[in-house]
């Protein structure tokens, strides 16, 4: 009987009911996530956009619509410019160091059999450690008179270097710490990429006379690791661009502004000086960079079929 | 086609020597790097058991002449509620993770297996959300929490992270490969969708959930930016913020106590990592999933 | 060109012994096939010859000199892999050229940027290009040199892998299951091509396969391996006609050899299903033996031949039409054997109906006798018993 009914009038009522249940449960399941998405991302973004066009100061009563004034001010502000330059400089040191270093280590570790897991643990250790706590240790390691690094330098006959209180070295020092923290993470990503390269290819290369480390790397590893490298590169850029912790704890932007970075300035303007409107504009500048990096990644990964 | 030209006759001795030299070179590079990686940890442990006199004479020694560990750790524990910081870290990570899973799993299931109006739009929002770091919505959230009088609460510390678009994305990828036949069979057996999610699909996604849990816990245990903004009460501080308070307030250059505190606050995660090495590596690199 | 000599090669992976003292001499210019079921050690053996694995014991000489300490490319061997192992990011031309670039350019001339400084490089590259073109022409790959491997068909990839092996003019070609990723039709075609290539080049070929047809059709000699040892080494016809053991007999030949349980009676006479055969073996009476009969050794006979004739009755279960011939599957009612197969011309096959009871006859001389342990037993005084069995003629 139901069969006859079904053929007479499209989908059976049972099937239609099923479909309705599916829609309702689907909406129900997605609802909490959607509400949170709205409250913690979408709405704040809208509010932020609105704030960036005002001169609102947190705690203040008045506010005026100022149009693009905040953005104009930000682009003209020498402090912001300097912090942007510093941030990009930091990225420019961390990215090559953190990516190429990790690649080198991964390639060397990959071929180890017995010692591989030992090296993996050692290089990965900084990734899991609390950077703020380790920053304190680094501060001490690099201390001009008490730190062992300067101890070694002295022993080598080199003068003490005040790594963190010298404008010329402070940012680079932070970058080295950044690389230290990031290397193991990138190494693991590269190791995963290396594992995906068929062993056959290396064996064929061995037989074809391509057996030296450099040849193997240039002929097989590097080209086949392309997609992984792209991914690691962009992730590292984004991570480095978000530098905040070490600056906040170790240098606070000093000495003489040499380690002022974008996110630290956003923090200062937004949560210390409460120039909320201005900080909102700075946040958008920060976001613009992050989005550009992400777009590069999406674009590059779409094209990852390179052969 | 000419014959291959070999550069020089290869004797057994030469080839053994060649292999040995390349091993020396490889391990040389790896060990040098390992020293760079481990130096801060070693120096942290060593300094934390040195008396001030030995710290300040700036000699490089890997073991103290006088064991001063008890005093340093005692001082650190006395001056700052380090265990409290660690407990806050546990509460923070646990609270965030539970809500993240409760919200993300049903949503991911709906996105993967159910058709409902707005599904594609929601997924696009999720993908866009992946690009937005917490520093972006931070200020409006701060203002809202301040208006609601919720600053300096665990809730304030957790709320921006309740929704993990990354978790939704990751679980959706995982659920998509779950066989429809099993879900349909469960429906025929009279299971509700709610039961299907939690009793059939979720257990199968255990590896992804474990990996995400590690990722989430490590990220929030170590996060400084957001707690720094909403927490000023030291009793609520998670480990990084606690460390910052401690370094600011108490010690000046009492490096023995500082490194002791750093050891205590770094230890939980490092020990967990050493115990569950694979899980950690999988968990933190789960972001590499494409 | 070179001969290859293996002596007492042994290899274990952990506790598993993969190769157990292999001795094998391969002549200059020979096409030798290592055949056997998976896990028999044949792939490990060829990888040891290539230098991709290192033996635990024993030694290996190519062209009369020891190569144990040499790296793969120094051994002057080329290898074709089962997966072809083509470099996916390089064009066909670059794939084939790679062995030559490695051999003819110095390291600094191969490095990016730095290589632009080399004046000599262009001349070398031109030489390589013309060599590649020559090889490509031989393999009809000339028009594909700019393609990437992913754009090629299976057969084309196979030829690129061959080209990469040929271009370096190696002393020995090693091939590890090179045809197993091709579809059936192409495989048959490539068998011929490989055999012709071998004839043309005259180089030593060592070929690994699990497919006995490939082994039989291409090789000068075949080494049948099992559990890390060589069971029999000989020409394809030796392996087929005089299998040294039950395992060899079972592995070689399609359809598989028919095996019938038999016993040794007084005087070493072999009894099949209680009837004595004109076949006696130097074994003690009462022992169980296995009688091996190729499917072409069987024929249909009319009625019940007299005493002393080799025959047994069977019931036709199924006729399998292969076009040019039939394979008939028989049940042996009430007997211990599972069944037997027989080749028949379509005319013969047309003469029997399914489920029909028939009598199958064979010549004792064509029977192989295997002792209980599986070793071949040579019958005594072969030729003494030439039973004459009249095959059933078509339409009879």
UniProtKB/TrEMBL annotation, chain A:
Regions crossing the membrane: 26-53, 88-109, 121-141, 170-197, 217-241, 278-301
Membrane topology summary: Multi-pass membrane protein
Family, similarity comment: Belongs to the binding-protein-dependent transport system permease family.
Classification via Pfam families: BPD_transp_1 (PF00528)
Subcellular location: Cell membrane
PANTHER family: ABC TRANSPORTER PERMEASE PROTEIN, INNER MEMBRANE ABC TRANSPORTER PERMEASE PROTEIN YCJO
Main location: membrane
Protein name per the record: Carbohydrate ABC transporter permease
Keywords: Cell membrane, Membrane, Transmembrane, Transmembrane helix, Transport
Keyword GTP-binding attributed: no
InterPro entries reported for this sequence: ABC_transporter_permease, MetI-like, MetI-like_sf
Annotated source species: Bosea minatitlanensis
Domain spans labelled ABC transmembrane type-1: 84-297
From TrEMBL, chain B:
Compartments, as annotated in UniProt: Cell inner membrane; Cell membrane
UniProt cross-references to CDD domains, sorted A to Z: TM_PBP2 (cd06261)
Membrane-spanning segments: 20-46, 85-109, 121-143, 155-175, 196-218, 255-276
Pfam families found in the cross-reference section: BPD_transp_1
Superkingdom of origin: Bacteria
Domain ABC transmembrane type-1: 86-276
This protein's UniProt keywords: Cell inner membrane, Cell membrane, Membrane, Transmembrane, Transmembrane helix, Transport
Membrane topology: Multi-pass membrane protein
Record carries keyword Acyltransferase: no
Entry keyword annotation includes Transmembrane helix: yes
Biological function: Part of the ABC transporter complex UgpBAEC involved in sn-glycerol-3-phosphate (G3P) import. Probably responsible for the translocation of the substrate across the membrane.
PANTHER family: ABC TRANSPORTER PERMEASE PROTEIN MG189-RELATED-RELATED (PTHR43744), SN-GLYCEROL-3-PHOSPHATE TRANSPORT SYSTEM PERMEASE PROTEIN UGPE (PTHR43744:SF8)
Summary of subunit composition and partner proteins: The complex is composed of two ATP-binding proteins (UgpC), two transmembrane proteins (UgpA and UgpE) and a solute-binding protein (UgpB).
Family membership noted in the UniProt record: Belongs to the binding-protein-dependent transport system permease family.
Name the UniProt record assigns to this protein: sn-glycerol-3-phosphate transport system permease protein UgpE
Gene that encodes the chain: ugpE
TrEMBL record, chain C:
Domain of life: Bacteria
UniProt cross-references to Pfam families, sorted A to Z: ABC_tran (PF00005), OB_MalK (PF17912)
Residue ranges of coiled coil: none
Domain called ABC transporter: residue spans: 4-252
Keyword list, A-Z: ATP-binding, Nucleotide-binding, Transport
This protein's record includes keyword Methyltransferase: no
Statement: the UniProt record of this protein carries the keyword Lipid metabolism: no
Molecular function GO terms recorded: ATP binding
SMART domains the record matches: AAA
Family, similarity comment: Belongs to the ABC transporter superfamily.
Family matches, as PANTHER family: MALTODEXTRIN IMPORT ATP-BINDING PROTEIN MSMX, OSMOPROTECTIVE COMPOUNDS UPTAKE ATP-BINDING PROTEIN GGTA
Record's protein name: ABC transporter ATP-binding protein
Species of provenance: Bosea minatitlanensis
